[in-house]
Design a protein that fits this description.
Number of helices: 12
CATH superfamily of the largest domain: Ribonuclease E inhibitor RraA/RraA-like
Number of strands: 12
Strand content: 15-25%
Radius of gyration: 22 Å
CATH architecture of the largest domain: 3-Layer(bba) Sandwich
Largest sheet: 10 strands, mixed
Helix content: 25-40%
Structural class: alpha/beta
Number of domains: 2
Length: about 300
């Protein structure tokens, strides 16, 4: 066993020059080995657009509950200032990590960036990599004054590339300008008119911490007014389908309670055969209320013996 594990660890944690700025494809595959599907050019898992569309309608609490049941206890963080609180945001995570500036660290990072064709300040480098459907998630150390990772210029670039927005454990400037970008949204710790100061971007597409949440590149993020939840790519389909089913059951149960067809005690406990049959009939009569493909629902219910 040791002869197998040791080469894997050496490969995963070897640090070629590129890894000083951006995790290699091999390292991303190491951190996301449970994902068996398509990957982006940079190595991140690429969950389908269809699942992203469905995720936007999922309740944050339901998604969090499914993750907890799977043993993922550190995927949520709250207490945000939100640019458009009424609008949900979903996407595939691209991460960046920031640290306080230190000359002997910052200089070689910038020099290496130049050899790789990266231009501008380091806080623009992750933006250059964004693709449609990505969400830029950054550990900005919670810094507000001098921690403004973007203003409206970079905000316009982010939205042009991703059509989404940002989640920053840090701050932004030019709030009015960001609000003028139709469709752009952001979950941040604060706003400040200062420019970014004494901060260096140290890694792109690394696992990072956002508050109490662990974030891995390629995760899906579901951001709503309650907070943000990060979903590992390999669990995305299970989380979305399970959350959709919970919402579907709740929809049925609430209607039955309003109509007095079943009691709260009956609905809240393991369902009897007559409730299961009523649920099946209700689904057939209300196809517009079914959020997932019917084939997926039928298989899920069969597996759950419903």
């Amino acid at each position: 066993m040791k002869t197998v594990i040791l080469p894997l660890l050496l490969a995963a944690f070897s640090l070629p020059a590129l890894a000083q700025i951006q995790l290699s494809k091999e390292q991303l595959q190491f951190y996301t080995a449970d994902w068996k599907g398509e990957r982006s050019a940079d190595g991140r898992p690429r969950v389908s657009d269809a699942l992203l569309t469905r995720l936007k309608k999922v309740s944050l609490e339901e998604a969090w509950g499914v993750l907890r049941n799977e043993g993922y206890n550190n995927q949520f963080d709250g207490n945000w200032q939100i640019i458009r609180p009424g609008d949900a945001m979903v996407g595939r995570v691209l991460t960046a990590q920031y640290m306080p500036s230190r000359p002997d660290m910052e200089k070689p990072i910038k020099e290496l960036g130049k050899t790789q064709g990266r231009s501008g300040n380091t806080n623009s480098w992750p933006i250059d990599m964004l693709q449609n459907g990505d969400v830029y998630v950054a550990d900005g150390m919670g810094k507000i004054v001098g921690g403004t990772l973007i203003g409206d210029n970079l905000g316009n670039s982010i939205y042009a590339k991703s059509k989404t927005g940002v989640i920053f454990d840090g701050s932004v400037r030019d709030l009015e300008g960001l609000e003028d970008i139709s469709g752009f949204n952001g979950w941040v710790r604060g706003y400040d008119p200062s420019y970014i100061m004494d901060m260096t971007m140290t890694c792109i597409n690394c696992p990072i911490r956002i508050g109490r949440a662990v974030v891995v590149p390629g995760d899906l993020v579901l951001a709503k007014k309650e907070g943000v939840v990060f979903i590992p790519a390999h669990l995305a389909e299970k989380v979305i389908l399970s959350a959709e089913f919970i919402a579907l059951k709740d929809n049925f149960g609430h209607q039955m309670l309003r109509e007095g067809k079943f009691t709260p005690g009956q609905i809240d406990q393991a369902w009897t055969a007559d409730i299961k049959q009523a649920f099946q009939s209700w689904i057939n009569a209300n196809p517009d209320k079914v959020p997932m493909p019917r084939a997926d629902l039928d298989k899920y219910m069969k597996d759950k013996n419903l």
